[in-house]
Amino acid sequence: MNENSTIHRLIPLACLSTLFICLPHLATGQVNQDNIYDPGILKPTDSNLKVAIHAPAPNFTLPSLKGGKTTLSQYREKKNVVLSFVPAAWTPVCSAQWPGYHLAKEYFDETDTILIGITVDNIPTLHAWTKEMGGLWFEVLSDFYPHGEVAGNYGILRRSGVSERALFLIDKKGIIQWIDIHDINKRPPLDDLVKAMRAIKKD
Amino acid sequence: MLLLLSACETTPTSQSPNSLNSVPIGNIPIPLPDNPTDRRQLGLTHLKEAAHFQVNQMDCRILVVEVFDFYCHICQSSAENLNILHSNLSGPPFNAWVCMMGIGKENTALETDTFRRNLQVAFPLLPDPSALFAQAIPVTHTPHVMILKKDGKDYQIIQQKIGYFSKEDVDLFTGLVLSLTTQQME
Fold this sequence. Notes:
Distance between the termini of chain A: 56 Å
Largest sheet of chain B: 7 strands, mixed
Helix content of chain A: 25-40%
Largest sheet of chain A: 5 strands, mixed
Largest interface: A-B, 52 and 54 residues
Order of helices and strands of chain A: HEEEHHHEHEHEEH
Strand content of chain B: 25-35%
Radius of gyration of chain A: 22 Å
CATH superfamily of chain B: Glutaredoxin
Structural class of chain B: alpha+beta
CATH topology of chain B: Glutaredoxin
CATH topology of the largest domain in chain A: Glutaredoxin
Low-confidence stretches of chain A: 1-5, 13-32
Structural class of chain A: alpha/beta
Helix content of chain B: 25-40%
Mean pLDDT of chain A: 85
CATH superfamily of the largest domain in chain A: Glutaredoxin
Shape of chain B: globular
CATH architecture of chain B: 3-Layer(aba) Sandwich
Number of domains of chain A: 2
Mean pLDDT of chain B: 88
CATH class of chain B: Alpha Beta
Low-confidence stretches of chain B: 1-7
Number of domains of chain B: 1
Number of helices of chain B: 5
Strand content of chain A: 15-25%
Oligomer: heterodimer
Shape of chain A: globular
């Protein structure tokens, strides 16, 4: 295609666009920002960890967003497991962490690891929240009742009743190999998690 | 249409600044891509061994920049339309004047590379882990797509869209860049 034909093809767009240059405007979009509750800046961590690297991961059974219940030990000898605790649905940082993991499936597959997301929210809330994210490939569990029991067993239940923003990497023997109790106000970088998963694969 | 999460920090607006805003982005260091195709797209073939480049080293009079976030769902869902925009702006008469790039706000290289690979983004995506570029604009919400025109040492924002980048935005931005390109050719 030569330059002249390209220009002729695009002239209508250019004319329309000239109007936009001259006339500032607002356009409606797809986002309803009102759906997100911003709790402000919180104390970075607010709990006392009860588990440790090289110690067994406490087992648990929780309701799954996909239906039924999931037990951690069902992955024993089968898969490494990453537990991603996020404090609460419909909050800014949490809503921006799992969509990243949605794009990172290749790293979990590469290291024979599954990802399990956990919050203290109930299933209907998690349903609406993850649906608004556009869906997630990984399993999401509800630690709603007894409230935050699993988070409490791991020592990451904050006094406010939400969990820390925490990542646990558990190997196929059920042993914790890596922990990141992150500043609740910040997202953990993907790099650290990928590095930990690749390290466990080499062992 | 699903409502999308404002976790992507979105306030959906498409606007021309009331006055042309000059933004101090010219001297911000950005990692120089290894890929020769990316360097060509960014007008940086004259740089050889540098680890970083600066925007004012790009051989482009018009810049189209998407500030995005790997973790932003709306950035992910906007990727297809931004690829269409990039396709529209590839080839003559644009390629002599226009460069398009993505800047990953607070993202690492691993995160921007993962975003690009998974969403098959056709234009260079570069990490901005300290958000230097984003702060200079300033970018508070992602995605934030803008057309910038070089004006001496400075760059002026001609048009910007904050939030989901739609097919209508593709048409608008394509037309605007064409207008600007035509002005440059005259």
